[in-house]
Amino acid sequence: MLHQPAPDPLLTFPGLSRILIVSDAWTPQVNGVVRTLRTVTDEMRDMGLTVEVVGPDRFKTIPMPSYPEIRLAIRPGKTLARIIEEFAPDALHIATEGPLGMAARRYAIRNKVAFTTAFHTRFAEYLKARTGIPEFLTYAWLRRFHGAGAAVMVATQSLREELTGRGFKHVRPWSRGVDLQAFHPEPKEDWDLPRPIFAYVGRVAVEKNLKAFLELDLPGSKLVVGDGPQRRALERDYPKAHFAGARFGAELAAAYAGADVFVFPSRTDTFGLVVLEALASGLPVAAYPVTGPKDILGESPVPVGALDVDLRKACLAALDVDRANCRPFAETYSWRACAERFMDNLVPMHAPA
User: Fold this and answer.
1) Phi, psi of 129 (to 5 degrees)
2) Segments in 88-154 forming alpha helices (H)
3) Where does the pLDDT of residue 106 fall: very low under 50, low under 70, confident under 90, or very high at 90 and above?
4) Residue 47 CB: number of other CB atoms within 10 A?
5) Cα–Cα distance, 223 to 241 (Å, whole number)
6) Phi and psi torsions of 94, nearest 5°
7) What's the whole-model pTM score?
8) Hey, which CATH number is domain 9-177+335-345, 3.30.70.20, 3.30.1130.10, 3.30.870.10, 3.40.50.2000?
9) 340-to-4, 38, 65, 160, 267 alpha-carbon distances in Å
């Protein structure tokens, strides 16, 4: 999967030199969608393309109910239309289904221009977990939202098959990459905790299913690196676990490398960038056999982790994985290849939708 840079992106992607991405997930948010978009944007700029991301930071916002760290744009339609017309993109990509995504979709339909979308987040499952809204209702709306585009990009083959089975059309693959300069097996954080250390890294939120990890009967220590709306409640309910808070940059890389097993308890992620970050840090992965982990680990010719419907069994099996296998496998994931696949999936705005 290692990919050499294209010699001339303007020849490789003719007619697509100005790319506009509209996303409700953008800085200062910290999540997989933001990391993906920021890194792919940087890669495309390095390829000589002009790329602009329109996020909530350009609009008046309100906090998202039950998740105040996420800000939602208020009535962005007119301002967004002006931004689109002033930038005059060759291709329009709508990354999310929030207020900005819906406004961009309305603009595109009204002006009869083509666009692409991406399925980053399982909103149906998250809404059910937070509000009780039945999944089939949300999926019906999501089909309609994405169905207006020329293509919907997804990160894994299993998700592509699932969405196709749910009636989504024009589903195209768009895998992910990992920053191999940022994540590496050395140096390691000295956690000064009983070994083995089973670590989770990521948002501390209900959709990440952290209770499934924290309730396991495991030897050694449980470590949670990250922050989010559920952190305070989990710290209260699981006092034996160690909550280290959010880490960034070199401290984050060392946090991964200093553990013994990376535990990914989520059942609803569409990929799981943290899985690649852990592997790049030389850390075996334990997870459920669900979309994301099963797609990533299933590509490795040698064991780099363990999957099991019994998460405890997966954790214990991952302890026996040779850490030396993890980094070489992670090196097969290139952000440049991810950016080039993204470009392959785009369509000219004025092409037939």
Assistant:
1) -65, -35
2) 99-110, 123-131, 135-147
3) very high
4) 19
5) 6
6) -105, 110
7) 0.79
8) 3.40.50.2000
9) 10, 14, 36, 19, 28
- What's the confidence (pLDDT) of residue 260? 98
Return the number of other C-beta atoms located less than 10 Å from residue 25's C-beta.
Answer: 23
CA-nearest of 106, 98, 110, 132 to 29 is 98
For the ranges 56-60, 120-124, 143-147, which has the lowest average pLDDT? 120-124
Would you kindly state where each structural domain of the chain is located, as residue ranges? 9-177+335-345, 197-330
Among candidate residues 130, 197, 142, the one with its CA nearest the CA of residue 169: 142
Confirm if 319 and 298 have CB atoms less than 8 A apart.
no
Report d(CA 173, CA 151) in Å as an integer.
10
Q: Specify the pLDDT at position 126.
A: 78
Alpha-carbon gap, residue 98 to 102, rounded angstroms: 6
* Residues 271/292, Cβ–Cβ less than 8 Å: yes
Residue 230 near residue 204 (C-beta atoms within 8 A): yes
CATH homologous superfamily of 197-330 equals Glycogen Phosphorylase B; (3.40.50.2000)
Both tokens of residue 3? 């990919």
Find out whether 234 and 210 touch, Cβ atoms under 8 Å.
yes
Checking if the pLDDT of 125 tops 90, the result is no
Residue type, 178: V
Whether residue 323 has pLDDT greater than 60: yes
Q: Contact 279/264 with Cβ under 8 angstroms?
A: no
Whether 298 has a pLDDT exceeding 70, the answer reads yes
CATH topology match: 9-177+335-345 vs 197-330 = yes
Give the tens place of pLDDT for each residue, 38-84. Answer: 999 999 999 999 999 999 999 999 988 777 778 999 999 999 999 99
Measured in whole angstroms, the distance separating CA 23 from the mean position of its chain's CA atoms is 13
d(CA 100, CA 86): 17
CA distances from 64 to 25, 106, 198, 205, 331 (A): 12, 22, 32, 14, 37
Integer Cα distance of 231 and 217 in angstroms? 20
| Of 160, 182, 178, nearest in space to 337 by CA | 178
